[in-house]
Structure formats: structure tokens, C-alpha cells
Amino acid sequence: MKISQLRFYGGARQRTCRLGLADIFLEVQEILLSAQVAVKEEKQANGAAVIRELLDAEFKKRIDWNGNKTGDIDWIKRFRYNSTLIARLGVEIQISARSDLLIRDIIHLRNKLQAGDIDVGVIVVPDDRLQRFLTDRTPSFSDAVKYMEVEFPEGKTYPIVLIAVEHDVASDTPLAKKRTNRGRKLAEA
């Protein structure tokens, strides 16, 4: 994937440097860049869940990234010096869900930041161009900025980074769409 935009809130850039999280933040970027994504450049032609699975697979390949289940931060990595825990970075990947779930990610990060479970949060979303080629209601970078700056402006006060990603190349074949249980029932009727 390509990283097309970054936006820092609440002193996230300074905190990342001050707490020694710069290497981990660079690793997040490497993980995003290492996922190879080709989409059919046609409105809503591609499934977003495949991209999410590719990104999760890239995180799993890396050392010391802890993946979590639904309801928690997706990926967390801790920075240690000798045996002392110094800081933690948490990543939420919001590629395949509805755009209104971005607010849940902001709240997850806020709660974990307030509890001291992480020190900096990252939200990864499709950029506005890629979002046009994904299924309806997937989030975009513009949606994430709107939630951070208009809908939930308290979010701007927390050290959170928004990262917008774009696909690598165009393809003649769209990414497969996941069928929901509701979709299966309609197809069987």
C-alpha cells in the first residue's frame, strides 16, 4: 500500500519521539507499505475486508505485535529498555467497517490512553481515492478527519495519528466482497 496522508493530533508527533516510539511508528509504516494491494478502479467494485486481512497478516509476521479481538485496540506493541516497559503504541485498522465506527476507534484509543494502556494511538483508514473503489459506507480519510475535528473534537486533544492508505496499482480483477449472513439468506431465497 501507499501512505498518502498523515495527520497528528494532541502532540502525537512529539510524544512519539520523546517516548522512544519512533522506531515502532516507522514499523507501522513499513507494515502498511509491505501489503501489496491491487484494486479494480471502479466505484464500489472491491471488497474492503480483503485489505483488512492483508494488513492483519502483515502485523502477524512482525515480532512483538499483539493482536486483539473485537472491542479492543487491534494491534499494540510495547517499547522496552532492558526489562523496563517504557511506552506502548496502539493501532486501529478501520478499513472494512462502516465509517460511523470510526468514532468507536477514537473512543477505544481515548480510553486506553486515559487508562495508561497505550501512549500513542494510530488509526489507519483508506484515503478518499481508494475509498471510492471499496464497498459502500467504508470510511475515508475525510470521514476520519470529520470525526476527529467536528463530530468528536475532544479526540484532537489525545495523541492520535490518522494514516490514510492507498492501493498500489489498478487491476482488472476486483477484490472479492465478503457475503454477510443476510446476503446469503437473500441469495438462497
Write a concise keyword list for the protein shown above.
about 190 residues, alpha/beta, Restriction Endonuclease, six-stranded mixed sheet, two-stranded parallel ribbon, 7 helices, about 40% helix, globular
Distance between the termini: 39 Å
In terms of per-residue confidence, which ranges show pLDDT below 50 for 5 or more consecutive residues? none
- Strand arrangement within the widest β-sheet reads 1-7-6-5-4-3
Rg from Cα:
17 Å
Shape field: globular
Total E-strand runs: 8
Order of helices and strands: EHHEHEEEHEHHEEH
- Taken together, the total number of domains comes to 1
Strand residue percentage: 15-25%
CATH topology: Restriction Endonuclease
What is the CATH-assigned architecture?
Answer: 3-Layer(aba) Sandwich
For the residues shown, what is the average pLDDT? 91
- Secondary-structure-based class equals alpha/beta
Number of helices: 7
Largest sheet: 6 strands, mixed
CATH class descriptor: Alpha Beta
